[in-house]
Amino acid sequence: MEQFKEKPMYTYLMVLVICASAGLQGWMALFTNFAKEVVGVNGFQIGVAQAVREIPGFLTFLVMYVLLVMKEHRLSAWSVVLLGIGIGATGFFPTFPGLLMVTVIMSIGFHYFETTNKSLTVQYFDLKDAPVVFARLRGYGALANITVGSIVWFLSYFIPYQLNFLLLGIFISLAGIYMLSKNPVQEHGLPPQNKLVLRRKYWLYYVLNFLSGARRQIFIVFAVFLLVEKYRLSVSTIAGIYVLNYILTYLTNRYISRAINVYGERVVLSLESASLFVLFLGYAFIENAWVAVILYVLDSIFFNFAIGLNTYLQKTADPGDLAQSTAIGFTINHISAVVIPLVGGSLWLLNWKLPFLIGACLTVISLYFTQKIRTQTR
């Protein structure tokens, strides 16, 4: 009967997820238009900016060393504070080098929070509850994104980018500072682990994370840039699309968690790969603005199927390996996340369809490896 709600860690993570999700969503809703209209970037530069944004994700293995001097739940809260600082500063640096600098600050906060968030979830919630908790937290994040997306959409008509970024950043940082006063830690039976774990038996989890990171970047970077550059959608329209995305995320996440519990990770992740293959081909060959918007909305729904990777690890890894393996998986996910924007940005200058065709190929490879998933209770 959802007894996991009684755990202090659930409430703690819920608040931080809401803050981090709202911060990233507000930043994303403003970033592409800000980069295009104020900074004046081209397709290659947007790829560089997004690659730089993912470098902190590639370095998330360093979390294990930070945890030598800081509790994991406190690192989560401090990460949200840093996320807010990076967001709030964005509008004050309307040059390409400045944009890269504040993007790195924001990204360190977000990626370190995401690593600790996933790690704490798989440590504090059992095999049956974890998919539900992941889905619920994403649902709460979606509600926060709906709210902040609506606010950004409204304020974009009245205030400049600089003030939009600043107000959002201040709110996120203050919320993170408040959560530093909370202590949700309970004994969960696992000794603290502060060493890296890279084991052969988790090879499939690593491969799937690598492919997931590559596909995710095509969605995050080039799908939205397609809407802004090719189809000339305004910042208010982009914000409205994000709001619609997160309404659907909130409504569908509960069914995703149920599907994982009933059908397993292999079925859910196979459906994700097959669907994204069709969507990427649609981006490349159907040149209609509103069809592209529909594809983007569907893309955002299937994006949430990736929680199956976290529950797959939880079902197959040794309990003492969970925190470290989560950090390693997040790092591997971001190896491709650093490379794809750079390669895709270069290819965009040749032909804007090429990044999406590469994405379609990656989904086929991912579908092949997904068939090797075998999950069972430890």
From TrEMBL:
Spans traversing the lipid bilayer: 12-31, 51-68, 75-93, 99-116, 137-159, 165-181, 202-227, 233-251, 263-286, 292-313, 325-348, 354-370
Residue span(s) of domain Major facilitator superfamily (MFS) profile: 201-378
Cited InterPro entries: MFS, MFS_dom, MFS_trans_sf
Keyword set includes Nucleus: no
Keyword Transmembrane: yes
Keywords: Membrane, Transmembrane, Transmembrane helix
Source taxon at top rank: Bacteria
Gene3D superfamilies reported for this sequence: MFS general substrate transporter like domains (1.20.1250.20)
Pfam annotation, one family: MFS_1
Protein's name according to its UniProt entry: Major facilitator superfamily (MFS) profile domain-containing protein
